[in-house]
Structure formats: structure tokens, C-alpha cells
């Protein structure tokens, strides 16, 4: 029982001397990469909407990026940003996430009701206020289900950092299971790690819509 | 002359690795679609136990990362030593590790089947109940019924299935954690051996983008060939 608790602790918080790691690091990586991707995605969506001539090349570049596996992005960024594998991992995941988030935000921004834009213009709402109080909440309201689906995928894709040895949950599970010799111990480690991923995705699926409702981005369903 | 030979050798090795990736993708995607059809059928099952069981499997496979499934399958297969004789269909993977490639294909299939089952389930649910009953009355044999339903839902099912199959292609890169031949393993190995990371990364990125484009074109082709045209009131006789 103590061994099981110790394994769970290592999977949750990382190996000794490499903390934070495990699930905690996976969640931190997810939050950093996801946050950066949303910022980049907003910039991309605004640029593609404001400059229609640039929309096609931007979309082509985004589609090309979406065609590259996250593992390859992680591997390449680890060589570009050789000083820190952690930073390389965040940047690679952010790029991968941006290629999806940007398109989601662009498509929803394209569907912003012209009537609302016209009303804001007639009422003399300043552009920055229009964006902050009308367009962004509308984008989050309409785009949240699509963003949530992508974020669940992103949380699981933090496991791609196993190829560069960043000590997130998949890497810790791999190291712990490789250090053991019997099948039962492997199944225990990998089963626990899978359960932690499953739990984290379920929490994400429940937490984010509740948070959005609390922030009044989304009306109660 | 030396450069031409080196370029040819590089192109050949990338082509072989791409073929290995396509084989791994095709086998695991076929397995995944079969599993997903069974799960989607279970989600519409008559008994609550079957429905809940299928739903639980779908949620579990969608919540657990494919990397974890590949890791578990690969480690178990490596430790088993290959007791079961399996067909050697994975090009580039040496004989003693063919069973590892099969195990990884099964893990990849498991990783995508939940997502595909939800797509199939949603498509079936999107059919109007009256239309569904009308269609099912046209056939008595279960296979004929399935064929009629499939034709009806293809328009809904194909685009998201195509997107998932591109993601599925990207997941094949996890096979590089084991001695199974595929494209990412080649790119990684050659980059580290030659220190020409960006050359190999660019070749890999373009090859993956090309394969993704191929999947997209295949799905669009299937849509064009199989999805019945939408009849409008004006077009109807």
C-alpha cells in the first residue's frame, strides 16, 4: 500500500530532485502553452479578419503547421532552444496548439453577427471597448466547446515531451516502469498514470465551463 | 556525383520510412474503425449495461493519452518476447519486433476508437428518426440495413473522421519509442547521427504534411464518390 502511495506521489509531483514534475508539470505546461496559444490565436484571428488579403497565406501556414506531428515540433524546438528543454517544450506545444486555436478563433470571429458590430458602431463604442466587452466574450461563449475539445487534446499531448525527457507525467511513468522488472508493477504505474490523465481531463471538462459561467462569459445552460 | 548519391539515398530512406508509417497508420486505422463501429453500436444497444459499458470504454479511451497506451503495449510486447506468430507486414521493422509493431498498432487503434465512436454515434443521432425508420424498412438483412444507414450518414461522418485520421497519423510517431520502423524515428535518428537537424526536420515536416494532405484528399474523394447529392425541392422530379 505504501509502495502504491509512493508511486502515486512520484507520478503526481515528479521524481526527487526534479520537481515540479509528473502531473503537476503536465498541467503547468498545458496552462503555459495553452495560454500562449490563445494569445497568438487572437492575434492571428484579428489579422486574418482585418486583412483579407493576408488571410489565405496565413491559413496556408497554419494548415502546414497543423500537418506536422507535435513530436516533430518538440524535437526540432529542442534543438533550436537548446538552453532549456522545458522552454522548448512549452514553445513547441504552444505552436502546435496555436495552429488549432487560431483557426477556431478565426472561424468564430468571422461569424460575429454584423448586427452587433453595427450596434456598437452606432452607439459610439470605442474599438478597444468593443473588442474587450463584446467580441471577446462572444468569441469565448461561442467557441468554448471547440476550444475545450482542443484543450483536452493538448493536455494529453503534453506527453509528447517524453521524446526530449522533460519530466512530465508520461516521462515519469516511462522511467518508473522501465525501472521495474515485473508486469504487475508496470501495469500499476501505467494504470495509475492513465487514471491521473483521465481525472485531469474530466476536471478540465467540468472546471472550464463552470469558470466561464462564473466570469459571465457564458450564460447558464 | 557524391551529393546526387547521398540525395538519392536520403530520398529512398525517407520513402521507406513513409511507407512504414503509412502501413502502421492503415492497419491501426482499420482496427480503430472496426472497434469504433462496435462501440457506437453498443452505445445504441438495447440493454442499459451494454450502453453504459460502451460509454465507459469510449470515455476511458478518449481520456487516456495515446502515448500512454503505446508505452504500455510496447513494453508488454517487448517483455513477452514474441511468443505469438504474427504476419510480418510492417515494412522496415525487423522480424523479431514485428509483434511489437502489431501491439503498437493495436494501442494506436485503441487511442482513436473512442473519438471515432463518438463521431459515428453523433452522426446516427443526427438522422431524423422518421427517415431512419423509413430507411430500415427498405431492407431486412442486417448487412443491407447497415449499408443503407452508412450511405445516409457518410456526409456527416467523413469530414470529422478525416480530421481524426490525420491526428491518428501524427500519433504513429510514438512508435519511435520502440524498435519499430516509421518516419519520425528515421528523422530523429538521422538528425542525431548527421547533426543536420533542420534538413531532416524540414524533410520530415514536408513528408508528414504531404501524408496529411493525402488523407484529406482521400476523404474528399470518398465524399465526392459516395455521399448522395442533396436533393432540393426544385431539383426533385
Descriptive keywords:
heterodimer, A: 221 residues, mainly alpha, MetI-like fold, 79% helix, elongated, B: 237 residues, 8 helices, globular
Radius of gyration of chain A: 20 Å
What is the count of DSSP helices of chain A, taking H or I runs of 4+ residues?
9
| Count of extended strands of chain A | 0
Tally of extended strands of chain B?
0
Helix content of chain A: over 70%
Q: Residue share in helices of chain B?
A: over 70%
**Highest CATH level, the class of chain A:** Mainly Alpha
Specify the overall morphology of chain B. globular
Q: Beta fraction of the residues of chain A?
A: under 5%
Counting helices, strands and paired strands, the structural category of chain A is mainly alpha
CATH homologous superfamily heading of chain A: MetI-like
The value of Rg of chain B in angstroms is 21 Å
Describe the structure.
The complex is a heterodimer of chains A (221) and B (237). Chain A has 221 residues and is mostly helical. Chain A has one domain (21-214): MetI-like fold (Orthogonal Bundle). Chain A is 79% helix and 0% strand. Chain A is built from 9 helices and no strands. Chain A has helices at residues 2-13, 22-50, 52-66, 70-80, 85-110, 114-122, 127-157, 169-178, 183-214. Chain A starts with a helix and ends in a 7-residue tail after the last helix. Chain B has 237 residues and is mainly alpha-helical. Chain B has a single domain (9-226), classed as MetI-like fold (Orthogonal Bundle), CATH 1.10.3720.10. Chain B has 8 helices and no strands. The longest helix of chain B has 42 residues, at 2-43. In chain B, 40% of the residues are buried. Chain A binds chain B through residues 64, 66-72, 75-76, 79, 152-153, 156-157, 159-160, 162-163, 170, 173-174, 177-178, 183, 186-187, 190, 193-194, 197-198, 201-202, and chain B through 59-60, 62-69, 71-72, 75-76, 79, 166-167, 169-171, 173-174, 176-177, 184, 187-188, 191, 197-198, 201, 204-205, 208-209, 212-213.
